[in-house]
């Protein structure tokens, strides 16, 4: 009894400690994943800002290239029209536009480099966070499996299932053994009763034959009519013979 009580309290303590040990690491991992997701969200916003700056720089560079081409066309048209002064003015503006275009190109190149780096970094971080999320799912599944195993063990310890199974098997074996003995005794009793009846029938038959033979001898010897004993009288003689024994 005391051993069962000890197992009961031991199971409770192990269940509490197991649950605490199983839940705390998983909770810490979940919190870490939440922090990673928050950081990833901030990184996405920063990458989006960098990519947006790249887009604006590319749009400004395209506009400067179009202005340079437009001024080149205006200078050619003015020169064809014989307006050299207008052509000179268009070329002057084109030189200024080329300077602005070169600056816009440098800005775009720098913005594109930063945007490309942001894209690569964001992809790496996303893959790493996704890997941690998958790992967290695996660890949670393992933790749940361990908790289920610990619960099964605590139930086994608390209710002593193995001991109850052994008691059941032993009791069932004894009951079956007793039933087999009773069946054997019934078989023996039936066979012995049948044998006794057979022997009694043989004795009765022999006694009747002897009585008939004696009566026949007496009739032939003395000329006296003698009837053989009836079966009832023969049975009485048999009973008397058993009683004398």
Continuous helix count: 4
- Report mean pLDDT, rounded to a whole number: 76
Low-confidence stretches: none
User: Could you state the order of secondary-structure elements as H and E?
Assistant: HHHH
CATH class of the largest domain equals Mainly Alpha
CATH topology of the largest domain: the name is Helix Hairpins
Write the layout of secondary structure elements.
Blueprint: H1 2-80, H2 84-159, H3 161-222, H4 231-244
Helix pairs in contact: 1-2, 3-4
Describe this entry's structure for a reader:
This protein is mostly helical and 245 residues long. It has four helices and no strands. The protein has helices at 2-80, 84-159, 161-222, 231-244. The protein is rod-shaped. The two termini are 62 Å apart. The model has no long low-confidence stretch (mean pLDDT 76).
List descriptors:
single chain, 245 residues, Helix Hairpins, 94% helix, rod-shaped
Short description:
This protein is an all-alpha fold and 245 residues long. The protein contains four helices and no strands. The chain folds into two domains: 158 residues, Helix Hairpins (Orthogonal Bundle), CATH 1.10.287; 66 residues.
